[in-house]
Amino acid sequence: MSNVLELCGVSYEYSPKTPFATAALRGVDLAFREGGITGVIGHTGSGKSTLVQMLNGLLRPTEGRVLLRGRDIWEKPKEITGVRFRVGLVMQYPEHQLFDATVSADIGFGPRNMGLSPEEIEARVREAAAFVGIGEELFEKSPFDLSGGQRRRVAIAGVIAMRPEVLILDEPSAGLDPRGRREILTGLWEYGKKSGTTVILVSHSMEDMAHYCDDVVVMNNGSVYMTGSVSEVFSRAEELEAIGLDVPEVAKIAARLRRRGIPLSGDLYTVESVKEALLRALRGEAES
Amino acid sequence: MRDVTLGQYFHASSLLHRLDPRIKILSAILLIVGLFSATSLWCYAFLTALVLLLAAISGIPLRMILKSVRPLCFVLVFTSLIAAFMTKGDGDPFFSFLLFSRLRIEMYPEGLIRAALLSLRILLLVIATGLFLTYTTTPTSLTDALERLLHPLTYLKIPVYDFAMMMTIALRFVPTLMEETDRIMCAQKARGADFSSGSLFRRIRALVPIIIPLFVSSFRRAVELATAMECRCYRGGAGRTRLRTMRCRPADWLFLAVAAVCLAAVFVGNAYLPEPSFMRGVL
Question: Quick one: pLDDT band at residue B7, thresholds 50, 70, 90?
């Protein structure tokens, strides 16, 4: 499968050449493949947020190159806005970016900046709102009258409305209750599958990764610590624990059950898969 | 947005850092008075040496000090030009010509000296106040000290305490607001907002998507802060004690005394030191 986004030896330093200079990324090589949902995980300060701001050109690497479909996004710095339309980034707490008088106008801000026709903007606003579950009865409301979860979804719709080839979300479920989390993440998962958009999800919840992602990138201290499919990454639990990250609780339970001699098969890191494996094991015992 | 040095505390443990902030404010005032009353070249030399000495003992890297002076360049150039052209001297002008056949533009040597001294005065002023107040004193202790110094005004029913609290809060939230602006700008840029091209009107309009979220979050923050303060039983200044009481040690008084002596020296120098001949009629 081909790679949509690639980072080649990317380093980034905040406030370079001052006493406050801090390296946020050190020589990162990374590729995001077409179509999948990739999770980026790591501790606070591990460089996750810096990494995603590299991908759409909000930050310019101090060293190295960022390739979008094989082309350096900084080839023509004046056309960086075009890159931002193709690589949509939803920042942390995106509900704080809402500003327009109505929900539909706010979702349409991106498409308007793209210079689309009013009909096209209208169509995209409807489509994006439908994806995140914002009903049309809310279109004429002020975004400031909505609930926190709704505001977040409006903000996400504002980026989806640009129909980016890659959709990046920085902690989209932070600060939401479990139900809100599930709704948003399931919505994004469905959006990724239906539209074929490559989705990159930053989170520090291992459970979220296990549920919604195909691949995982583990960041630590400004470099890529580990990368691979979800099952590959979660099978290296000791290495994850070495940098203070945890595998999902159910994966730990499954591992301990195995150690007790209960024959569980398959990749076990979601509640469903463990349940299935347990049932299989129990049935197997009953038969024998 | 992140690289704003003006008004940034630089952590170190020099003599200036350890000085009582009230003494620092008073010394800064004395130094400013000295700068503005200096009329003799000797006094300027003395004050320059004094500020350099302060810079040396403050432990602030020279680069940081120079960086804080950089935004002043425009002011310096502007005042220098005005001073250079508007000063009339006794001798012959360097050059003179007629602008629009009406306005005579002339430049005298006195004008140049005056421009240089004015620039020096502004530079010393900014560097000295920076050394005393912003680089070596945290904003909180600065407002604390101001409140203490202005305390007598409470007898005139001026709510000094509340002003000090407002100032503390305002100062506290400057960096937060900067960060917030940064973040919102990034979020709107990610949606294709363009802040750096187009006509002036377009650029002003492009700020709307930043200003509105900034206002909204500021109000939200204000409400949250007020609630948090009330939860901790804040009722204004009456009867509140302090975590950190300021106490002047002998060294602090000594520093103030030295500052006062320096000011006196400036006055004496103005009155009695002989002036070089080229300085006549300049100041």
Answer: low
Cβ separation B187–A15 shorter than 8 A: no
Q: What is the dihedral of CA A192, A196, A198, A200, to 10 degrees?
A: 0
Q: What is the pLDDT of residue B3?
A: 44
Q: Which residue has the tokens 């070249």?
A: B41
CB contact under 8 A, A159 and B190: yes
Whether residue B275 is predicted with pLDDT greater than 80 in this model: the reply is no
Tokens 């996400």 appear where?
Answer: A156
Phi (first) and psi of residue B32, to 5 degrees = -65, -45
Does residue A42 contact residue A227 with C-beta atoms inside 8 Å? no
A217 to chain B, minimum CA–CA distance in Å?
23
Residues 6 or more apart from B135 whose CB is under 8 A from it?
B8, B9, B10, B58, B60, B64, B65
CB A125 within 8 A of CB B238: no
ipTM surpassing 0.95:
no
Nearest CB to A159 within list B183, B191, B193: B191
Instruction: Spell out a b/e string for B100-109, using b for 16 or more CB atoms within 10 Å of the CB, else e.
Output: eeeeeebbbb
Provide CB contacts within 8 A for A5, sequence distance 6+.
A31, A32, A55, A66, A67, A68, A87, A166, A198
Sign of the torsion angle spanned by Cα atoms B17, B20, B24, B27:
negative
Residues in chain A: 288
Write out the two tokens for B258.
Answer: 């030295």
- What mean pLDDT comes out for the span A110-121? 93
| pLDDT tier for residue B1 given thresholds of 50, 70 and 90 | very low
Domains (range + CATH), chain A: 3-244 (3.40.50.300), 248-288 (no CATH)
| Predicted TM-score of the model (pTM) | 0.73
A86-90, B226-230, B266-270: lowest mean pLDDT where? B266-270
For residue A133, give the nearest of A157, A111, A110, A109 by alpha carbon.
A157
> If we measure between CA atoms, which residue out of B56, B36, B28, B52 comes closest to residue B266?
B36
Q: Do A99 and B191 touch (CB under 8 A)?
A: no
In this structure, what token pair is assigned to residue A193?
Answer: 């599958």
Residue of B nearest to A49 (CA): B183
Stretch A164-171: mean pLDDT: 93
> HEC states along chain B?
CCCCCCCCCCCCCCHHHHCCHHHHHHHHHHHHHHHHHCCCHHHHHHHHHHHHHHHHHHCCCHHHHHHHHHHHHHHHHHHHHHHHHHCCCCCCCCEEEEECCCEEEEECHHHHHHHHHHHHHHHHHHHHHHHHHHHCCCHHHHHHHHHHHCHHHHHHCCCHHHHHHHHHHHHHHHHHHHHHHHHHHHHHHHCCCCCCCCCHHHHHHHCHHHHHHHHHHHHHHHHHHHHHHHHCCCCCCCCCCCCCCCCCCHHHHHHHHHHHHHHHHHHHHHHHCCCCHHHCCCC
Separation between Cα atoms, residue B8 and residue B67, nearest integer Å = 11
